[in-house]
Each structure stands twice: as structure tokens, then as C-alpha cells.
């Protein structure tokens, strides 16, 4: 089979690899049908990552089950499933506590799409081995388009976690979104659907702002701190200066969720944060734990993740098209999965 391999800045290529096979009773092999780039993939392709190439890329996809071990009961060959980005066993203490990105049965940070915590391959591959099929794979709900939900492995479900629990605790909260990619747009859609009284989306990209306005958000090209302006801030830029602006706009006891990958150091206004009583969370996301809830929201029809998909492209176009600057391209192997 082939796996798409990151080899240099803005350069990827197909490389041959052995076909993955079911090695034990609890494993599965899947074939991606709709895969997309995560916001962090854009940073890696631009040369801002911290891992030297080459390595197999991709950690967001909906796939079709090809083969399963004898002990797998949750899925069957032919099923469409979401493949979470991190490897998790489902039975260790961390997994039982919902900390699936910190599974104790595998090396720390075991994941698809980067050689961290072992070599698990990438989801831009013709075939993928899933070591804990019952724990990891989540059937795609009937009626959901794999193209629209290709990002459920990470960015879509992460976006749900960034806002949904907070809006449940603070109905009608004011939400600030400082972003550069798909996460911020998903957050706008989810926040409005779940009752945010106000959403301000900040992004220098005019097309991104237009999409955010379609989700009911106010928009701005840049942010001037709005003292005590927002109950919840979501930062998804990977820039510490933008994170600082976000936390400086929080109301007393406000919460900031940082979904940016901060490859470069910077300074935060810690004294101001202390005086305001800010809660700041910067964390890997335990996607598998809340993936069913995120998919349920998508299936409800209250949100429209398909509007964030910028391009639907053929699988064979991956080497030339992935390094281009697209918001959220989805690469498909089964044309029947695309939207009109």
C-alpha cells in the first residue's frame, strides 16, 4: 500500500509500505474514504513543526472497515467509522477516566500522523491498522456525510469540547474566537447552536470571516482587548501574542481554551490573569471520550460542518494538493461520499 509521507517543507509524496494486517483478535484494518488535514498539519507543511521528516501524515478521517479480529464486536467489515487521532486501549485507568489521549497501554502521545509515541502510520494512507478496534472506532451515525465529518477524528470533536461543556455550565455566555483555521469556524457554529448570546470571531482572512458571519458571528480582522468582554475565549492560532489578547478580554472568572499548537515561546500577562481570575487550559484533546456527543450534535441538524469544507478532491491528488493553502480540503477515495 501507499502512505503519504511528509519529506520537506511543503513537500509530500507517496511511499510504499507493507499492507497492514490484523495482528491480534482485538484489531481492525480500515481504508480511509474521506480524509482531511488538521490545522496543525498546515503548520507542519509550512515547516513550523518540531519533528524532522520523513514521516507519514494525516490524523483525521472517516474510513471503511476492511478486516477485523475475532474478538471485535463494535464494528464489522463494510462499516463507516471515525478513526480518532490518538491511540487508546479503552481499559486502562486513564482511558476509563476519559483521558484517552494519555492511554497508559501505549507510549506517551501515541498517535496517527506523526512519529510520537511510536510509529502508527498516518490516515493519509491506503490502509490503516487500528490496534484497539472496539475502544477506538466509532460508527458514523446514519445520515451523516463522511466528507462533512472527515474532521471528527480531531478538529470537529475538539471544537465541540472547547465550547459545549462551558455553555452548559454558563448558558448564554459571550464567546470570543481568535483563530486562523477550521477549528475557529467549527466553534462559531457550535457556540451559536448551543445558545451563546454573542460570538465574536477574529481572523485576518476575509473568506474565513465571511464563513463565520454565515454562522451568526460578528467578525473582526484584528482584536483590541475588550476588558471584561467575554465569558469564554477560544484561541486557535498557535501564536502566544494572540493568546494574550484573548485572555485579556475575559470577564472575571472567565475561561480561555487554547487549541493552538504553540511551537514558539512567548509571554502571557500573568498578573492581569491573576487579578481577573482567569482559567486557562492548553491541552491535547481526549477526542474519543466525547466523540459520540460531538457526532450526536452533528446528526441533530443544529450545525452544518459541511460549510467549513473548502474543497473535495480525489485521493490521488494528495501529493500535489495537500501542500497548497486550503482551509479544509477533504480527499476522497469513494466518490459516492461527496456532497453535491
TrEMBL record:
Name all Alcohol dehydrogenase-like C-terminal domain ranges: 183-295
Q: Which cofactor does it need?
A: Zn(2+)
Alphabetized, the UniProt keywords read: Metal-binding, Zinc
Please tell me whether the keyword Zinc is annotated for this protein.
Answer: yes
Q: Which InterPro entries match?
A: ADH-like_C, ADH-like_N, GroES-like_sf, NAD(P)-bd_dom_sf
Q: Domain (Alcohol dehydrogenase-like N-terminal): give its ranges.
A: 25-140
Q: What is this protein called?
A: Alcohol dehydrogenase catalytic domain-containing protein
Species for this entry: Streptomyces ossamyceticus
